[in-house]
Amino acid sequence: MEAIVGDTTGTSKQAQAQALVPFFIIWTGQAYSLLGSELVQFALVWYLTTSTSSATVLTSASLVAMLPKIFLGPVVGALVDRWNRLVVMITADSLIAVVTAGLAALFALNMVQVWHIYVLMFVRALGEAFHSPAMTASTTLMVPERHLSRVQGMNEALFGVMSILSPALGALLLDLLSMQGILAIDVGTALLAILPLCFVFIPQPEVATVGEGTPESTGSRPSVLEDLCERLRFVWDWPGLLMITGIHALIYLLMVPAYSLLPILVTEHLRGDAPQLAWLQAAGAGGIIVGGLILSLWGGFKRRVLTMSLTTILSGVGWVVLGGAPANAFVMAVGAAFFSAAMNSMMVGSVRALEQAIIPPEMQGRVFGQSLAIVMAMTPIGLAVAGPVSDTVGVRPWFVIGGLVTAALGMGSFFMPALMRIEDEAA
Asked: Do 164 and 72 lie in a common domain?
């Protein structure tokens, strides 16, 4: 918290710190819940792997965990804007905890079936589809605008820590506990996230009525379909925001599959094995943490769009170096993976902070729900394209070309007046 309030002094600094206490109470509880969720995800995937040895089962489980966010994200976002966001988060976390406890009971009774795990993954994905935009939109109303980039940096650093901690801790717990024991840990961490929400006030945005401000106003709330249409008009009529959406959808399309191609890059080009792959993955996770911490301490440029564009360029450069590293330059590849991940972490944090700062609070649920759906949709699309392309031309061109396109998008954004002026237009 000191990093966030470090640019104020005296009474002002104390007031800022006191105002941020409710947010950090919620954030801490959500961090524990995230750890529990990651542990369960690791344990369930390992259980499906050892009990079925079926690639079809594993891919089906991935789709079950992904589809609700893709297809329901926009609708969920509209509902988040209509409902009390505090209630949405409590309900989502509670539903996940109840279903997780039910699966733990089935494991204890030795009655679990694969479809039971599918149900849990579906419910968890649905709960996350509600919880994520509600939490992100609530952050805007609890954190001063100038600190949004720092908060997003903290979030990115937290995700990086979890990517390192959860597999190691999950593997250890699988040796020490039964599956129901690990599921019980997740229920406990969910309660740590729910309890603070019961005692902390979260401001709510005003909800517009049909025809508000006009003689035709009915005083009634618009329908969900009208809310979705309004969101589409909002993004479409704002070229700068539309550009951000398109640019980062393309980046995710190119870069997300690259992570799945790392094992092939290691074995076929860098002439490595499992330890070398582990080093590359650890470097990426470390980069996410460091990039998030830098953004949290620094806060980025005053104009967030500059931070976004610059880190996009540098992230792309890192991917080019990773793909172009000679076979005998493994240290260079590790450094490139670290650097690119750090820049990507700062890019993602600055984009989310920029959206939080410029999008009206009453519209954020819909926009963030759409963003979640786009990000999730890029994963299967990118994988479907990357596999055949990499089999045809090799893995390295995917990294190099993807990095060049990413860097070009970042450089091109400096020549897009609508994008560069987006913060001025919002003001």
From this structure: yes
Is the pLDDT confidence value at 59 over 80?
no
Please tell me which residue, 213 or 201, carries the higher pLDDT value.
201
Tell whether 45 and 121 lie within a shared domain. yes
State residue 2's pLDDT score: 46
Flag whether 216 is in a domain. no
Nearest Cα to 252, choosing from 344, 334, 317, 128?
344
Q: How far apart are CA 169 and CA 291, in angstroms?
A: 23
Residues 48 and 183 in one domain: yes
Q: How far apart are CA 347 and CA 355, in angstroms?
A: 12
Is 212 within a domain?
Answer: no
**Looking at residue 415, what DSSP letter applies?**
T
Query: Which residues form the domain of 372?
Result: 224-426
Q: What values do phi and psi take at 271, rounded to 5?
A: 55, 40
How many other CB atoms are there within 10 angstroms of residue 187's CB atom? 18
Query: In the predicted model, is pLDDT for residue 41 greater than 60?
Result: yes
Burial 269-307 (b: 16+ CB within 10 A, else e): bbebeeebbebbbebbbbbbbbbbbbbbeebbeeebbbb
Assess contact for 307 and 410: CB atoms under 8 A. no
Residue 217: inside a domain, yes or no? no
> Model-level pTM?
0.85
* pLDDT value of residue 227: 78
- The pLDDT score that the predictor gives to residue 320 is 95
Q: Is the pLDDT assigned to residue 141 strictly greater than 60?
A: yes
* Domain co-membership, 336 together with 406: yes
* Owner of token pair 């830098």: 294
Q: Are residues 301 and 343 in the same domain?
A: yes
- 337 touches 283 (CB < 8 A): yes
Tell me whether residue 202 is in a domain. Answer: no
Cα 315 to Cα 410: distance, rounded to the nearest angstrom: 9
Q: What is the pLDDT of residues 309-359, one digit of tens each?
A: 999 999 999 999 999 999 889 999 999 999 999 999 999 999 999 999 999
Query: Which segments of 265-329 does DSSP mark as H helices, in order?
Result: 274-298, 304-324
Q: Record the tokens describing residue 202, joined without a space.
A: 């979260």
